[in-house]
Write a structure and sequence with these properties.
The chain has 363 residues and is of the alpha/beta class. 25% of the residues lie in helices and 22% in strands. The strands form 5 sheets. It has a 9-stranded mixed β-sheet. Strands 1-6-5 form a 3-stranded antiparallel β-sheet, with no helix packed on it. It is globular. It binds iron/sulfur cluster (SF4). The site of iron/sulfur cluster (SF4) has 12 residues, from loops.
């Protein structure tokens, strides 16, 4: 299939020429090897002549103002609104994808909204958003666009958030995260078997990204694991996953256990029972994770933040709705002074659980 060059096609730099004449994309571990006119698995990066281009620069599949807790990020400017958007395509192939209409889109018509980085930053500012989130599909595949949006936002004091599977090669990883203030990284399971069979990917590069974020950047990040009955929800797997997190990343990286619902190609599994999320949270807490959450369910205890110092509920949460906050403006427990890990700047915002779809004016 030949690549249609359009205004949204831009050159990229993470690729190299192979001996057989193909060009290998070096953005993610999938390492697509492309002949002229071919697209990578993500569909949005393609070979055009003697280079690899991004074909969806400046195109979006839609915008929405969400609570930051929906990313989910519970320790990053709590209660504030975030301008969320995505493009099309994805570099994983998860059989349970909950955004498959976007991530698996082969129709660039999905990208209805033209949106320049400046236009997005201006919209975020006008809407009172504290941050912009690259979400719905993985920003790794549209790295050049995400970076430019981040730069435009940061010039206006708006932060950039990546919602990602963490499936990225070491060299682009450095550049990508230099431009991010926060991330939620999916740790989809803790076995190579799950990654291979269910996502057509590998676990090891994701673990490398998590260690990189913790030990070599200042990016605030939290981890999400979607628990699927019978596939990644055993006590043993959750025990190994949470032990690894504490040993390799430390006890203060928040972990979110969220509920699966049957979608896309994984329709033969039941929705995750709330008890499974509670069980996973208990295992995490027992293994020393200080901030373990249940997600996509009403669970006041599993959704709230507890002070690791004295056990006080420092942020009450019910799904995306915040209750009482017992933190100082810089994130210390009002009762015992323990510094809760995260990015806090004053009292929590008051956005609440609202979701506000937004249409950007044509450029
Ligand atoms: S970013 Fe896309 S084209 Fe590049 S290796 Fe990954 S899936 Fe392939």
């Amino acid at each position: 299939m030949s690549v249609q060059m359009t205004a949204s096609t831009v050159p990229t730099k993470y690729w190299h020429v192979l001996d057989d004449g193909r060009i290998q994309c070096d953005v993610c571990p999938r390492a697509c090897k492309l002949r002229d006119g071919q697209r990578g698995l993500c569909f949005v990066r393609a070979r055009e002549g003697d280079e690899v281009v991004l074909t969806t620069y400046g195109r979006s599949s839609g915008f929405c103002v969400d609570p930051i807790e929906k990313k989910p990020l519970n320790h990053f400017l709590p209660g504030t609104p975030v301008l969320s958007f995505g493009t099309a395509g994805c570099n994983l192939a998860c059989r349970f994808c909950q955004n498959w209409d976007i991530s698996k889109s082969r129709e660039l018509d999905t990208l209805a909204d033209a949106a320049s980085p400046e236009g997005i930053a201006e919209a975020a500012a006008a809407l009172g958003c504290s941050s912009v989130a690259f979400t719905y599909n993985d920003p790794v595949i549209f790295l050049e666009y995400a970076i430019d949006v981040s730069d435009a936002c940061r010039e206006r004091g708006i932060k950039a958030v990546a919602v990602t599977a963490g499936y990225i090669c070491p060299e682009p990883r450095v550049e990508f995260y230099e431009h991010m203030d926060a991330a939620n990284v999916d740790l989809k399971a803790f076995t190579e078997r799950f990654y291979a069979d269910t996502c057509a990917a590998r676990l090891a590069p994701v673990l490398e990204t998590l260690e990189y974020l913790k030990h070599e950047t200042d990016v605030w990040f939290e981890i999400t694991t979607l628990l699927i009955p019978g596939l990644n929800d055993s006590d043993d797997e959750i025990d190994r996953l949470t032990t690894w997190v504490v040993d390799r990343l430390g006890p203060d990286v928040p972990l979110h256990f969220t509920a699966f619902h049957p979608d896309y190609k994984l329709l033969d599994r039941p929705p995750t029972p709330p008890a499974t999320l509670t069980r996973a949270r208990s295992i995490a807490l027992r293994n020393g994770v200080q901030y373990a959450y249940t997600g996509n369910v009403h669970d006041r205890e599993g959704g709230s933040t507890f002070c690791p110092g004295c056990g006080t509920v420092v942020i009450e949460r019910d799904w995306y709705r915040l209750g009482a906050c017992r933190l100082t403006d810089d994130g210390r427990c009002e009762r015992c002074g323990f510094a809760v890990a995260g990015v806090f700047a004053g009292p929590p915002g008051e956005w609440g659980p609202r979701r506000l779809p937004v249409r950007l004016a044509p450029a």
